[in-house]
Amino acid sequence: MADGSSLSNASGGAGGKRPYHHGALREALLEASERILDRDGINGLTLRAAAREAGASHAAPKNHFGDLAGLLSELAALGFRRFSFRLEAAARAAKAPEDRGRAIGKAYVHFAIDHPGLFLLMFRGERLDFSRPSLQEAMDAATAVLAQAAGSGKGGAEAPQALARAGRMVAAWSLVHGFAMLLIDGRLAGLLSHMPGTIGIEALLDEVLGGGR
Amino acid sequence: MADGSSLSNASGGAGGKRPYHHGALREALLEASERILDRDGINGLTLRAAAREAGASHAAPKNHFGDLAGLLSELAALGFRRFSFRLEAAARAAKAPEDRGRAIGKAYVHFAIDHPGLFLLMFRGERLDFSRPSLQEAMDAATAVLAQAAGSGKGGAEAPQALARAGRMVAAWSLVHGFAMLLIDGRLAGLLSHMPGTIGIEALLDEVLGGGR
DNA sequence: AGTCTATATTGACATCGTCAATATAAGAGG
DNA sequence: CCTCTTATATTGACGATGTCAATATAGACT
Predict the structure, then answer these.
(1) Is residue A13 one of the residues assigned to a domain?
(2) pTM
(3) B55 CA: nearest nucleotide by C1'
(4) Cα B111 from Cα B119, distance rounded (Å)
(5) Residue among A170, A196, A199 whose CB faces B208 most closely
(6) Alpha-carbon distance A126 to A121, whole Å?
(7) B170 vs A143: CB contact, 8 Å cut-off?
(8) B157: domain range?
(9) Can you give the distance from the CA of residue B89 to the C1' of nucleotide D9 in angstroms?
(10) CB distance B174 to A208 below 8 Å
């Protein structure tokens, strides 16, 4: 997943003459896009920048993604697949079943911390094209992981029960999502700097996740 | 606040000849920007579009805001001031002190629902210039309202107490912020459509806010 | 009056997304 | 092997955008 060494066969070589056809330009563009996202933020991620970083001409992305929204959507889909993977891994790693929710919540926030640009891209609908099947599928899969995690207690389908279950699930989702968003946007930095001693994000996150226990 | 009639003195008049100097171009640009934000979303809000909508030349905003980030930041500052006002009004309207937190939470989400574009602009740091004093002040004021609302229980300044208090405050903030963000981004639409009967956003929000009681 | 300064316009440039036209390579079918 | 077709990539162009420099205008101040 983090490999990518086998994909770039002609970009940086000393041979100098790139073949007219890249061979795996789609993957190269996605990798370049993620690199740009991490380095320059989402505003630096443009079609032309991605093409440049991948060593292609400025209009090359059109063949593979059609559109800027297409490139961003495929990248977001990739992010959602990784996101699901990490959430599931965290759930599996939790020993006791009652620790699962907390473990998933921590994995949720940690993913946002590790990949802030990607996370923001995934959860900012404006620039994405939700009609893309790959994005739809990846999003649905991630949502399913979250729903399954929060809705562990089995309940009937009657309205009041359903509302209560949905409320618990959305509350848990909102809690971790809001924390991640506020943190990524630097909204908690001032608070943390005013805290005594060496209280960091982890302690605060533990407190936030553990408060409802 | 929603007036603005007295500011546009020469834009749409039948007289036709605009004076070289607008007289209140700064306010006109801000009003035009908010109109564009509501109509076309944040991607449609450009310097030139704002100038166009205000009936000025394409470089006019430079004199008042210097920069695109400047215009967006002033608009965000305006949003934060309105935000604080509504949160405080909600806190005042709450009869019992124990209802205050819930009232502020609902006001928080309602603000996001009423002004999604503005809310996203306010809480997306990428395009803002936080070195602007007006934005800083407006943000700090809003944060103070939230902090005061969540930290009603007075506690000492020792580390463990401070951590617990910060945890409660951040948890409450994260909960409403995450709910607002997910809702605005359409992430809860699928969930709501699958709910039986006529369960709407309000019921779900009540459930989310009441779950911790 | 005259001058100064804030305000607004015009024109230009680099960059961006997107399209049409063209070029190149790879594979299919003879 | 040789054509023909198709997928892939490049080039050039266009309008839109942010930003800057140069210029124009009008109100303020002396």
Answers:
(1) no
(2) 0.88
(3) C8
(4) 8
(5) A170
(6) 9
(7) no
(8) 68-210
(9) 60
(10) yes
Question: Structurally, how many domains does chain B consist of?
Answer: 2
Name residue B172's amino acid.
A
**Each residue's pLDDT tens digit in chain B (213 positions)?**
443 333 334 343 344 457 777 789 999 999 999 999 999 999 999 999 999 999 999 999 999 999 999 999 999 999 999 999 999 999 999 989 889 999 999 999 999 999 999 999 999 999 999 999 999 999 999 999 998 887 665 555 566 678 888 899 999 999 999 999 999 999 999 888 887 767 789 999 999 998 655
Structure token digits, residue B81: 């001031």
- Interatomic CA distance for residues B154 and B175, integer angstroms: 22
**Distance, Å, B128 CA → C8 C1':** 25
Size of chain A, expressed as the number of residues it contains: 213
Whether A60 is in a domain gets the answer no
Name the closest nucleotide to A29, judged by C1' and CA: D9
Is there a domain that residue A24 lies in? no
Domain of B41, CATH number, reads 1.10.10
> Which residues sit close to strand C, CB under 7 Å?
A 19-21, 46-49, 58-59, 62, 66-69; B 18, 20-23, 25-26, 51, 56-60, 62-64
